[in-house]
Amino acid sequence: MPSFDVVSEVDLHQLTNAVDQVSRIIDNRFDFKGVDAGFEREERTVALHAEAEFQLAQMEDMLRSALIKCDINPGAMECGDPSASGKLVRQSITLRHGLDSQQCKTIVKTLKEAKLKVQAQIQGDQVRVTGKKRDDLQEAIALLRESPVDLPLQFTNFRD
What we know:
With 160 residues, the chain is α+β, with helices and mostly antiparallel strands. It has helices at 12-28, 53-69, 101-113, 134-145; strands spanning 3-7, 38-42, 45-50, 77-79, 83-85, 88-95, 118-123, 126-131, 154-159. It has 2 domains: 3-8 and 99-159, 2-Layer Sandwich (Alpha-Beta Plaits), CATH 3.30.70; 12-95, Alpha-Beta Plaits (2-Layer Sandwich).
């Protein structure tokens, strides 16, 4: 029976590439010359630090565009509030990974309300969708791409 999984994942290698690209851009930008500004990445968290809050906003925009270039949806970004400490302003950005139970329930509810010929099961932080025909699964994917879930969704493990 054909099936696929609905997940929300961030490729950590691509995240490293995006942070490295933005760090190189900061080193070469004229308006950041002589400014103590940078990025630090730990697992799924990126810490930004700069001397002023407007510089943090510029760095956040640069990170967002680098994520787009590295095929990471910036909708997965959860930006923390900037906090001043000494002469630096810091901000933490977390990239969400996985679906929580409420988002899984929303996906299942969306599929049931559409009355497609598919079944959805919650499996931890992902949803498995099964159906008798490949066309039904493709309709489900098209429906979920337009759904109101606030996380970027990926469709993996497509089995025929």
